[in-house]
Structure formats: C-alpha cells, structure tokens
Amino acid sequence: IDLHLVRQWLKEAGKIALIQRDFLDATLKTDGTLVTNIDRQIETLLVERISRYYPDHQILAEEGSNKKTKGEFLWAIDPIDGTRAYVSGLPIWGISVGILRRGDPYAGVFFMPATGEAYWGTDDKAFLNDRPLLFRKNADIRDTSAFIAVPSNAHCYYTISFPRLRSLGSTTAHLAYVACGFAMAALTRRIYIWDVAAVLPWLEITGVRLVYLSGKTFNPHELLDGHLSPEPLVAAPFNIIEDVRKLI
Predict the structure, then answer these.
(1) What percent of the chain has pLDDT over 90?
(2) pTM higher than 0.90, yes or no?
(3) To the nearest whole number, what is the mean pLDDT of the chain?
(4) Is a pLDDT exceeding 80 seen at residue 34?
(5) What backbone torsions phi and psi does residue 33 show, to the nearest 5 degrees?
(6) What are 100's strand-pairing partners?
(7) To 5 degrees, how large is the angle CA 166–CA 222–CA 56?
C-alpha cells in the first residue's frame, strides 16, 4: 500500500475541510456526537479513492460508507476526528485512516490540516511529517512538563490524581501526541476502531502501550464489527503505563 499516495488523499481532503468550514451544516447523531456535511464529503472522497486503487479491500467508515469484500485488508476511516473542535474553529482535529491486515494493525495516516502535521507509518517505522518517531524507553512520570490528554468530559466521570490534564479535542491526536512524546499519556472515552486505527501500527515501535482502563489487553479484532469498545483506553510508554492507570 502506497502511504505517500494516501497522504496525498488526506491533504486533498484537508483542503476541502479548511475551505468549506464557512459552509458547515452540523447535526447531532443518535450517540450525541456531531457530524457535518464536510465529514460526509471527505468520507465519500476517501472511499472513492480506496475503491478505485484497492478494489478488493474492505472499508469501515464512521459515517457508514462501509464495503465488505473477501480481501485481507480493512481500511478504518474517520473523516474528521475532533468534529466539535473543527466546528468551533479550533486547530486540533484531523483526518484519520488506519489499515488492518487480517485484523492486525498494518499502516496508518493521521493528517491535521490546520497545523500541517502528518503522523504516519507502519508496524516497523513511523514519522511526524518526514521526521522519524523514536522509541521512548525512559519516560518519567515526574517530568514537570508532562501532561495527560483526556476527553473534555473526563471531570464528570473520573478523579485523576495528576496535576496537568489537557483536553485538546481529538482522540487520535491525543494518541499521536503520546507516540511522539508531546503528551506523557492519554485517557480516551469508549472508542470505535476508526478512532484509533491510524495510530495502532506505530504505538509499539514508539514504546507506547495501549490497554483498557481496567488493565485488560486491548485487542482491535474485537471492534472490527463497528461496535463501541467496552471500556475507555489508556496509552502511555511501557515503563509507566501501570503508574498512569493507578492515577485514574
């Protein structure tokens, strides 16, 4: 799979999102999340491109443009991760494409049009734009600049005994920030596979572990039917993941 081509698709989609932001039509879905006409426009674009270049691949997309085949590859698409931030005119949102092979993370691209950041890679190499992401082996929970990225409603459901929490608007961005070392850790809400698929291939090679809040191992195979995860997730470097879980 040509990830450089996929990055071009996401940049094209990003231009649509930026240009069309003044022509938004936003509505609430049954689960209480926002969807816009731009989400649907981007999803249509990506599904068309994937179907044209990889016709035997399966597609699972947030807004329902699904395609089932007998192919071994599955593309999980979130046309705009962080729709509320996007609608509000804030910069932390992005277009997310994760590719799984026989249910296992294979490759992913997450592009943030407002900031120009492209996080992308496979299970053996990952990049922020063209800078390689490195393995984090000595993360320090006592670092005075460290913060935990959390959902905007975390204060309604959790007591978190850590002094620095930040909610930036996008689950995928939060996880990407952990992978590249900007954030110490992230707590997610209950998620769908398209919320995390883009980052899954390169979390382990950057030294980051993803587990359910209870400590149970996260298995992406359990979410390939499009269902919501049974629990929130915690992401943090391997050496501090248990310390972070105990803070929540």
Answers:
(1) 83
(2) yes
(3) 94
(4) no
(5) -90, 160
(6) 74, 105
(7) 105
Measured in degrees and rounded to the nearest 5, phi and psi for residue 66 equal: -95, 150
Helix (H) or strand (E) holding 165: strand 165-166
Q: What pLDDT, on a 0 to 100 scale, did the predictor assign at position 73?
A: 97
For residue range 185-214, list pLDDT tens digits in order: 999 999 999 999 999 999 989 999 999 999
Q: Sheet harboring 126-128: ordered strands across? A: 58-61, 73-81, 94-101, 104-112, 117-122, 126-128, 131-132
Question: Residue 152: CB partners within 8 Å, gap ≥ 6?
Answer: 84, 167, 169
What distance lies between CA 1 and its chain's CA centroid? 19
Question: Which residues lie closer than 8 Å to 78 by C-beta, 6 or more apart?
Answer: 61, 62, 95, 96, 172, 194, 195, 198
For residue 165, the model assigns a pLDDT of 97
At 98-122, the pLDDT tens digits run: 999 999 999 999 999 999 999 999 9
Q: Which two tokens stand for residue 177?
A: 């920030």
Find, among 151, 145, 134, the residue nearest to 248 by Cα.
151
- Identify the residue whose tokens are 């699904």: 66
Instruction: Say if residues 93 and 82 touch (Cβ distance below 8 Å).
Output: yes
**Cα–Cα distances in angstroms (integers) from residue 144 to residues 76, 164, 240, 243, in the given order:** 36, 9, 15, 16
132 C-beta neighbours (distance < 10 Å), count: 10
Can you name the residues that pair with 233 across neighbouring β-strands?
Answer: 212
Residue listed under structure tokens 């890679």? 121
| Total residues belonging to the chain | 248
